[in-house]
Amino acid sequence: MAVDSLSPDWEFDRFDDGSQKIHTEVQVKNYEKFLEEYTAQLQGIEEALDDSVGDVWDFTLDPIALKLLPYEQSSLLELIKTENKVLNKVITVYAALCCEVKKLKYEAETKFYNGLLYYGEGVSDTSVVEGESQIQMGRFISFLQELSCFVSRCLEVVVNMVHQLAALYNSSKGATKIIESTGVHFQTVYEHLGELLVVLITLDEIMENHATLREHWKMYKRLLKSVHHNPAKFAIPEEKLKPFEKLLLKLEGQLLDSMIFQACVEQRFDNPGEGVSVSKNGAFAEEFAYNIRTIFTNVESKLGEPSEIDQRDKYTGVCGLFVLHFHIFRAVDKKFYKSLLDVCKKVPAVTLAANIIWFPDTFLINKVPAAAKLLDKKSIQSIRSSRDAFLQQKAQTLMKDMQSYYIFVTSWMMKMESILSKEPKPDKLSEDLSNRCNTFVQGILYAYSISTIIKTTMNMYMSMQRPMTKTSVKALCRLVELLKAVEHTFHRRSLVVADSVSHITQQLQSQALASISTAKKRVISDKKYSEQRLDVLSALVLAENTLNGPSTKERRLIVSLALSVGTQMKTFKDEELLPLQLVLKKLDLISELRERVKVQCDCSFLYWHRTVFPIYLDDVYENAVDAARIHYMFSALRDCVPTMLHAKHMESCDQLLECYDAEIMEILNEHLLDKLCKEIEKDLRLSVHTHLKLDDRNPFKVGMKDLAHFFSLKPIRFFNRFIDIKAYVTHYLDKTFYNLTTVALHDWATYSEMRNLATQRYGLVMTEAHLPSQTLEQIFIERTSNNKHLNTINIRHIANSIRTHGTGIMNTTVNFTYQFLRKKFYIFSQFMYDEHIKSRLIKDIRFFRETKDQTDQKYPFERAEKFNRGIRKLGLTPDGQSYLDQFRQLISQIGNAMGYVRMIRSGGLHCCSSAIRFVPDLEDIVNFEELVKEEDLSEETQKAASVLDCVLSDLTSNSAEGTEYFKMLVGVFAPEFRSVKNMHLRNFYMIVPPLTVNFVEHSIGCKEKLNKKNKVGAAFTDDGFAMGVAYILKLLDQYQEFDSLHWFQAVREKYLKEMNAVVKEQNVQSTSQDEKLMQTMNLTQKRLDIYLQEFELLYFSLSSARIFFRADKTAAEETQEKKDREEVGKTGPGSSTIEGSPGELSGK
C-alpha cells in the first residue's frame, strides 16, 4: 500500500482498544520462549562436542589461540611529546636505540641461534654420504652471509649507543651541554647495551662449541681449492671464484674464529669527525662505571634467590659491559673485577641458549688479561674447582629440590584454580586483583627457578663431560614435568587470565600514576626555576602521559627512560621510589605474562639432551600409577619443533623434523609401548594358565604392577599424530591372538578367554577373530546304500586321485559336469515353459506387485503354501512325487554338480600345495637349467633340469591362482539365460518360495525316516538345493528380485506369530487341566520349532552359497568392473544355447 498516495489530512482513528498491547506481549513471550529453547540447544551442542568446552583449554587441541600482548600503533615520535624539545630528542634517541636492540636480540634468538645450533643435525653418523657435508655447507653459506650482515649491524648499533651516551656526559669544557646530566643515570640504556653484547657473546660460544660446523667448513674450503684448479669441470666461470673466495675469508675471519665479541669491543669508538670524544671523556667513563656497578649491585643481591627472574642474563651483560669499558678506557677497577669473579662461586655457569653454557670466570680471565695477571693462581684454581663442587652438591640436593618444588608448584596450581574459579566480590576487587597479580608472578618465579636448575645442571654435566646418575636424570625429568605443568595451568585458564591481566595492568598503572602525580605536585609547588627542574617536570609529565594507555613495551621503555630523568633532585622520597620501582617491575611481568611463561617454560633445549628420554620412559613404565605425567614430557619434546624450522643446512627442515619424529617414536615403542604389550600378553597368558602352576604369582611375594593406568590416559599428541596407548596395545593383542589362532585353530577357546580377561582387567575392547574352531572339509555322501554304511568322497581323496592320475582328470571332470548341466538346464527350461507353471507364476508376480504395500513388502507364506499344494493337483508320479518335487530334485542335482566342481578345484589346490611345500621360497625360484649349463653338465642333466623348471613354474602358477571354475560355468550359461528368447526363465525368482516350502517338508520327512525301521528315502542332509538356487539366481541375475520378496522374514514372522499364539493358548488352558489338549499344544509347538529351525538352516545355507557367486554384484556392476579393469576375457567354454553342443572347456 503506498502511503504517499493518501491525502495529507487523512489520519487513522486514534481509538485504542488495547489489542495492540496484548499482541505485543504475546510476541515478546514467544520470543523469550524461542531464546530459551535456542540457548538450551546451543548448550546441548556445546556439551556434545566436548566436555571441556568452557574456560578450560586443552593444550593438545587448540582450535584457536589467544594472544594478550598489546602492540603499539603509534610511533616513538608520537608518544614522546612534551613542551621540552631537547628532552624529547634525548629520550627519542635512547628509546629508538633500545627498540633496535630488542629487535636484533629477537632476530638472533629465533633465527640465528637455531640456524647455527641445528647445523649438521638430522643426519645419522652411519648414513653420511660422501660429499654430503660439502652440500650442507653450500646450502648454509647464504645463512652465514645473513649472519655477517647481522653482526655488522650489531657492531654499528654498539658504536652508536656509546657515542650517544658519550655525547650526553661530556667532560670537555668546550662541549655544549644538551641537558643537565649530573643526577641522570640512563641505566635502562646500559642494560640494553649489555643485552646486545650478550647476543655477540652467545654467537661466539655457539661457534666455539660447534665442531661439526668447523669441520664442514674446512672440507668446503678444500673442495673450493679443487674447483679452483679445474673450474671448467664444475662449469663455474673463473672470474666468479675469486670474489667468492674473498667472501669466505671474510666470513671465516668475522664469524668462525669466535672473535665476534672481541671485534666489537676493539672497534674504534673515538671519531673526531663526528666530534664525539669517548676514550678521553672522564665524565662518561665515570658514568659508565657507575651504571655497571649499579646494575651489578641489583643483580648480585637477587642471584640464587627465589625471587630471581632474569638476573643471570643481566650478569652476563654486566661482564660484557665491563670488558667493553676496559677496552674503551683501558682502566680496571680491581675490586669490582674481583666481585664479578666471586659471583662464579654462586653461579658457576650461565645457559645462554639451548645447550650453550657460558663460564664467566673463563670469559673474564681471557678478555681482561691485565686484571687476570693481578690474581694469584690459587684464587683462579679455587673458582675452577667450585664448578665440580657445584655439580657434586647439585647431584646430592637434586632429589630434595625436586620434592620441594613438587609441593610448591602443586599448591600454586591449586591456588590458581581457586582464585580463578571464584567470582571476585565488588567490595574486595582491588584486593582480589593484587592477589591474582602476586599469584601470576609467583608462577613465573617458580618457572624461572625450575628452568634454571634443569638447564644449568644438564648443560654443565654435558659441557664438563661428567656422567649423570639415574636418580638425577629422573629428578630432572620430574622438574621438566613441573615446568610444563606451570605452563599448562596458565594455558588451561587462558580466558580468565586474559581477563585478569587487563584489569591488573590498569590497577598497576593507576598505582604508578598516583606515585608520579605526588612527585609532580612536589616539583610544581617548589617555585625555584631552573632548567634541571624543568627537565624533571617534563620527564614526569611524559611518564604520566605514556602510562595513560595500553601497557606496550614501547610505552614501558619510555616511562623507564623518563623516570631516569624524573627521579633526580630528590623528587621522590626513598619510601616512595622503591614501591614505584616494584610496581613498574610487576607491570613489566604482567604485561608480558604469556611471553614470559612461554620463554621460561620452553623446553627446546631437551633436543640436545634427548638421551635421557629412554631412562624417563623406563621410570614411567616402572611407576605406572602416575603415568599421566607423560603428557607433560611430550609437550616438552614438542617445544623443539618451532626451533627446528629455522634449520638451513638441509633441503627442507621437514627432513630434520621427520628424523626427530622417527627417533622419539622408536624410543617410545622400544621403552614403553612394546614392553607394555609384552607384559600385558604375558599377564593374560599366565592368568589363563593358572592351573599349570607356572611360577609364583603371589603379589605379596613378587610385587604387583597395575598397568591398567596406562589405558585411562588420553591420547598423547606428538607432531601430526595422536598416540593412543590403549588402541596400540589392543591392536597388538588382536593381531597376536588372531595370528596364533590361525596357526593352531584348536587354541581358539584359550584366546577367546584371554580376550575376555583383557576386557575385564584392562578395559580393552577386543575384536572377535571369527575364525572357525577347526579346518573346514567338503564331503560328498552317498544318497542311499543297501549296505550298512554310506560311501563318502572328500578333498583329500580328490587330491590323491590327481596325484595318481595327473591334472588332466580335472579338465575331463569339468567338461563332463558341463555336459550334465546342459541336459539338466534343458529340462529346467521346459518346466518353466509349461503353461500351468508359467501362468501361476505370472499371476503370483502380479499379485505381489499389487499387494506389497499392504503386506509390508513381504511375500505371503500362505501364497507359497497354496502354490505347493496346487501343483499336486496336476498329478503325481507312481512313487507319490509332484512336479514341484521333481523340479526341486533337478535343482538339487544342479547344485550338487556345482559343489562337485568346487571340490575338484579345492583338491587341485591341495595337491599343488602339497607338492610345492618343498620349494623354499615361491617368490624367488632359481632357474635350474641355467645353473646346470653354467656347470657344463651332460645333456641329459640339462633336459632333466629343464623339465624340473617347467614342473616348478606349473606348480607355482597353479597354486597361486587355481582356475575359477565357478566363474567359467556362470560365464558360459549366463548370456543364454538372460537372452530375450528365454524370457520365460525370468519368472524363476517367484517359484523359489514354494520350492523352499517343498524342500523343508521333504527335509523334515527324510530326517524323520532316520528313526524308523524302513529307512528308504531317509537322509540327514541335502546341501545341493541351496547351491542350485544360488547358481540359477546368479545366471538369471535375479538376486535383487528375490531379495525384494523378503521371503525368509515373512517365514520367520509367520512361525513366531503361530508360536506366540500357542503359548498364549497354553497359558489360558493351563487352568482347565485338560491333559490331552496340553499334549496336543506341546506337539504343535515342537512341530513349529522344527519347521522354523529348518527354514533358518536353509536360509544360512543359501546365504553361504550366494557368497561363491558374488551375490553383492549385479550383472551390470560386474560388466562395469570388467570394463574398468580393461582385462581381456579369458577363453572359457564357448557360449552356446541350452540345447546346443558344448565348447571345449579348458582348465588347469
TrEMBL record:
Coiled-coil parts of chain: 28-55
Region of interest: Disordered: 1115-1148
Keywords assigned: Coiled coil
GO cellular component: endosome; WASH complex
Biased segments, Basic and acidic residues type: 1115-1129
Domain WASH complex subunit 4 N-terminal, residue spans: 33-604
Domain WASH complex subunit 7 C-terminal: 941-1110
Residue ranges of every copy of the WASH complex subunit 7 central domain listed in the record: 777-923
GO biological process terms on file: endosomal transport; endosome organization
Top-level taxon of origin: Eukaryota
Pfam families (alphabetical): WASH-4_N, WASH-7_C, WASH-7_mid
Name of this protein: WASH complex subunit 4
Species in which this protein is naturally found: Anabarilius grahami
Organism taxonomic ancestry: Eukaryota, Metazoa, Chordata, Craniata, Vertebrata
